[in-house]
Amino acid sequence: MGKILNPLFLLFLGILTVTALLRPMGAADASEPVGTYAGMSFFQGFLDGYNTLDALASLAFGIVLINAIRELGVRSPKAISASTIKSGVFSCLLMAGIYCMLAVVGAQSRAVYGICADGGEGLYRIGTHYFGTFGGVLLGVTVTFACLKTAIGLITSCASTFVELFPKSLSYKAYTVVFCLFSFGVANFGLSRIIQLSLPVLMFLYPLTITLILLSLAGGWFGYDRRVFIAVTVPTILAAALDFLNSLPEGAKAFLHADALLAPAGRALPFFSIGMGWVVPACLGLAVGLVWHFTAKKRA
């Protein structure tokens, strides 16, 4: 993945983005932002990031990265952590550059194509605009390499995890086959439909994932005290459950009579209306957890 698939993906994506940047369809700032992007672009972009599944996938990819570092001869936990941080910073900077270029190219395309249904349609229109029919092929090859490496990483890491969690169930090979078939079936719903169906689940899982990652990174400051994790996770779960209900389709909310909970939650929780009602409860939980930790430490 690192030596072949990813370089090929970057090569084909670079051909498309560099061409679009050198021959822009229009000015990136020519079109006015619409909807929530007009006033709360940061928060909307933050929530749109849920759809990438990057944070959730990183929890599964961790085992792949650690094993790869160990196979290079690195053994001590401190050296593995240092290697992980170095590779993480490098890849984050590279991804930030790629996303910025794609954002500029997408903004420029609005001068010709307006707003597309999703990023897949937008990239297809950009590709065919510059390269005709070959642009569709170029985009297909790019997406194939992009998704293939992600699928390989997720399927192998998830299969390894399930074998470890349930050793008396299926074999590693059987889990990989099951995950491949399930993913193949889901993929046929289309990107927009998948995002629509997965959004409520992501609204629930992402706050827990973000707080877990941040607590793990900062855990050295409070000795990875279990009490801090509990104090943050409990209110985050409750608030995330409300975000889950709020993102359900209107029919589902009416069936569950969710308005009885959502109306007071909207009045009590800051940022609830934009899908980030978990932020303040998580911060309050962190404050309680730290007080709990240092009080217990002082008593000890």
Features:
12 helices; 2 domains; mainly alpha; single chain; 300 residues; 0% strand; globular
Strand percentage, roughly? Answer: under 5%
How far the N terminus sits from the C terminus, by CA atoms, comes to 49 Å
Main sheet characteristics: none
Low-confidence stretches: none
| Helix count from the secondary structure assignment | 12
Briefly, what is this?
77% of the residues lie in helices and 0% in strands. It has 300 residues and is mainly alpha-helical.
Write a structural description:
Helices cover 77% and strands 0% of the residues. The protein is built from 12 helices and no strands. The longest helix has 37 residues, at 77-113. The chain has 300 residues and is mostly helical. It has 2 domains: 5-188, no CATH class; 198-295, no CATH class.
Describe the protein's topology.
Layout: H1 5-22, H2 41-48, H3 54-71, H4 77-113, H5 119-131, H6 133-165, H7 172-187, H8 191-218, H9 226-246, H10 250-256, H11 259-268, H12 279-299
Helix pairs in contact: 1-4, 1-6, 3-6, 4-5, 5-6, 6-7, 8-9, 9-12
